[in-house]
Amino acid sequence: MIDPQRLEDYLGATLAGPALGDTPPGLADAVRYAVFPGGARVRPRLVMAVALANGDDQPGLTDAAAAAIELLHCASLVHDDLPAFDGASLRRGKPSVHVTFGQSLAILTGDALIVHAFKILGMVGAQAPDRLPALLSIVAGGVGMPGGIVAGQAWECEKNVELSQYQQAKTGALFAAATMAGAAAAGVDPNPWRTLGQCIGEAYQVADDLLDTNGDALTAGKPVGQDQSHDRPNAVQQLGRGKCTQRLRSLVEEALESIPSCPGEATLRTLIGQESEQFMKLALSRPAAA
Amino acid sequence: MIDPQRLEDYLGATLAGPALGDTPPGLADAVRYAVFPGGARVRPRLVMAVALANGDDQPGLTDAAAAAIELLHCASLVHDDLPAFDGASLRRGKPSVHVTFGQSLAILTGDALIVHAFKILGMVGAQAPDRLPALLSIVAGGVGMPGGIVAGQAWECEKNVELSQYQQAKTGALFAAATMAGAAAAGVDPNPWRTLGQCIGEAYQVADDLLDTNGDALTAGKPVGQDQSHDRPNAVQQLGRGKCTQRLRSLVEEALESIPSCPGEATLRTLIGQESEQFMKLALSRPAAA
Question: Is A284 on the interface with B (CB under 8 A)?
Fold first, then answer.
């Protein structure tokens, strides 16, 4: 089984005082504020689960890949919350980074987290240099151009957006990077693992859209109704609640069916099934808000 | 000799339409706007010069390292120009990215350039995987925490700043990364190459401070008097013009003396001497502005 404490310990160590050394204290504080306490840590747990299902013979590389994916996710949250985008004042149940530390440090916090993610990969890469190029390409692909989360956010600046392309970049790409990075860290071909991440990512996005239209800020840990107020593509508004619920269920099915043959296949399937049940319950149980 | 066109070709190809694929058009345009036409491209030319002086047996890796360093520099300019920092409306003689594309795309442009820099390294890393971990650590170290350019920018958010620590992070770190990356790309020990980069970087920073206090926007290609209006540490304000000029000359001397023994040592020394003369002339020739 995955040990969530293993990830927290790794993240804690890589952002602790000694690791950050002479970093300006404000930046160091803001970076830690952005990462702790975490949300569900779904993406890094996915990295670790896929690596574990494939033998996890280089746990140091797995930890670094998982942490890198989580730091990149945190960076995107910090920048997305800025007034230039969502202007969200609440994140993970507390004031967002720019509210607490100001916009300058919030921008730099995102930048620093992105760089730190790649730095971590470089630091452990020498343990298995043959796996590093693929891992680096996978992680960068999940975040950058053409179809990573930064590109996904940039679709919000465009007049004409196709919903599935937007969602794939905004959410699916980093989930796909997570499953593929788990495979690459364990030394197996990452490509067959792409569909699993994409399906879970799209399912999460649909669930998030349902929560944004039907949930409340307490459940979501962030403001709701954001898509409508920012005129952003939202699956519920485009397809309706019924079709979204159906789509959510079929994405989870597709995810489970896509799991490639591997030593830990059964355990991984059980784990993903349980997690999916939990987030489906959260997304579907709320009555429509008034 | 270094062929500057080789770098421009590489940058052009990695940011051309086919390479950026389905990137949202606004982001693709903004990213290219941030990189072309370039400034002096001092840092990537330093990468290439040091690699060349050491045999340059993996030119693909050298090109990627040089381009990565330049993209990271461009990213820092885009973010530094934002209203949350300098609020500079002019950069390299044209409106800055946020003026032309808006703040949202400017933030994303910086993010995308940072990620693209690391993506490039991953793409060529397979050519020489044994050199990739060091290269990655060097490049990330020049940009991130504790002492890279993002940390340097974050010192501007602190009340108590030591000038040399600030300048080393804000400018010296990426120059040190440039010389070290050139060595690492060519497969030689990068550490003896740190001093050269640090000295050139600090010299550039002092020259930039002189230009900011004495130059005009046309020569600088950006607004001047920024340090004073933003209450930022500036060597001229702290040490006076005379001591700064002296410091600039001694840094260039120190840089030239630090060049490690290598096959192309003489050519490299001549090149750095000539370039230093040029930027010293620019920084020292302007009369104090009214």
Answer: no
> According to the model, what pLDDT value does residue B147 have?
96
Q: Which residue of B20, B74, B111 to mutate against A (max A Cβ within 10 Å)?
A: B111
Helices assigned H by DSSP within chain A:
4-14, 17-20, 25-35, 42-53, 59-80, 97-101, 103-125, 132-143, 149-155, 163-167, 173-185, 194-214, 217-220, 226-229, 235-239, 241-258, 265-285
**Facing B26 at nearest CB: one of A25, A133, A158:** A158
Residue B290 lies in a domain: no
Enter the pTM of the model: 0.94
Q: Residue B22: its pLDDT value, please?
A: 93
Residue B77 lies in a domain: yes
User: CB–CB of B157 and A104 under 8 A?
Assistant: yes
What is the percent of chain B where pLDDT is above 90?
73
The CATH number covering residue B79 comes to: 1.10.600.10
- A43 occurs within a structural domain: yes
Task: Evaluate if residue A142 carries a pLDDT over 50.
Answer: yes
Residue B80 sits in which domain range?
Answer: 4-285
Q: Cβ of B27 and A154 within 8 Å?
A: yes
Mean pLDDT of A147-158: 95
Q: Which residues of A17-48 are buried (b: 16+ CB within 10 A; e: fewer)?
A: eeebeebbebbbbbbbbbbeebeebbbbbbbb
Contact assignment for A154 to B108 by CB distance below 8 Å: yes
The number of domains in chain A is: 1
Q: What is the ipTM of this complex?
A: 0.94
Would the pLDDT of B42 be above 50?
yes
Query: What was the pLDDT predicted at A273?
Result: 93
Hey, which residues 45-84 in chain B have their CB within 8 Å of chain A? 75, 79, 82, 84
